[in-house]
Amino acid sequence: MARSASLLRMRTSFWYLPSFYGGLAFLFAIGTLFLDNFILSIQGAESQIPSIFLSDISLSQTILSSIASSLLTMTTITFSTILVVLTTYLSEFSPRALQNFITDHSTQRVLGIFTAGFIYCIILLLFLKETTEEQLFLVPSFAVAIAILCLIVFVFFIQHVTTWIQVSNLLHNITVETMDCMEELFEESDASIHDAPWDDWESQEITTKEPVIIMSKEPGYVQYVDVEALVKEAYESDCIVRVERQQGDYINEHTPILSVWGSGHKIDKDSFRSLITVSIARAPLEDVEFGIRKVTEIGVRALSSGINDPSTAVHCIEQLGTLLSKLTSMQGPQPYFNDKNRNLRVIIKTPDFFDYLDIAFSPILRYGKVDIDVIASIIHVLKIISDHSPTFRKEVIWKYTKHTLESIKEETYYELEKEKLNSNLKELCYSLGHGKEYQKLFIQ
Fold first, then answer.
1. Is pLDDT larger for residue 97 or for residue 73?
2. DSSP letters of 385-396?
3. What pTM value is reported for the model?
4. What is the 3-state secondary structure (H, E, C) of 130-174?
5. Most buried residue, 6, 14, 54, 196, by CB count within 10 Å?
């Protein structure tokens, strides 16, 4: 089920979990103060509580101020560590990979817990008052428990950072998130295409009428298309809407984003335009192509002369094989949406499987074709994807295979390297059902 645009913004922001935890800490501080006063006001209750958990006003203020100072220091160290990780991502991996660490809930929860602990102690210091002589307080014990929890979380954060900064774990997390996105957006199916509703009146309407073109009012990336709201708006306006840009596309001002075929009703352009969210950055959620591009960019960066790490590039190719092996068994995004009366209302432009292959492997192929391990890995991964593909997908993979071989035909390899490539190529050709054409593609 698609998320709303507002939920997307909240999910990808860095402040909402710390703010939520801070609000809970404020309420918890007020609640524990009332609980403290209520318990200690009961006759004889103070004698039932072990004295080790009770503190006078002076000791309470000392404990709370010490914990607040310590938590503020730990928060500063945590923030500095996050900046180091972000710098590493920028220089070693990909700027697009920053979002995976920033939007990771474990990272946000650590900062949120530290923020909550600091707010809890500060609120207690503000409201803690001695109303009678020799009054004792229970709330410093809660603060000590929270401090111990924060210390445990800090140790967890150090382990979390050392795990995330490893490229293998980063690639695994991007792959898992992208596969989850596939399962949410796409359907498992052996069908070749979605049914095109061109057998009723809508076909004639679109081919004979000029549409109303709705332009973008701001530049940026198409971050989110609210399809359900588009269908509802199109139903109420009695029209058909075609979305002219895909999610993730960059658009300028006055770029056509919607074409609307109406039946005479007035088209409210602003209402339709508001259902497409344009932002300065691509959304890290609900965008399968974006996840594939991030893995590809890490592989291309690994092949650069400054890093020169073909093993990471091969790992990226293997992860791309995992993603495309799953994608090849799915229908892909749905291009046609009907209203409750089964009349066509919204048409979405969708990429085909060849586009995904091109996005995934072509940049790595372009910069890594001199490396035999990279080329052999691409051909081997194409064979794995073919093994998971229905028949109609195999022809697309065969087309891309010929493109791959054409890209490397000018390269010179040693004899043993040619044997390795030809061995992988032979397996791929037979998997695709083109075994007889293997000799034509034989690498000389």
1. 73
2. HHHT--HHHHHH
3. 0.74
4. CCCCCCCECHHHHHHHHHHHHHHHHHHHHHHHHHHCCHHHHHHHH
5. 54
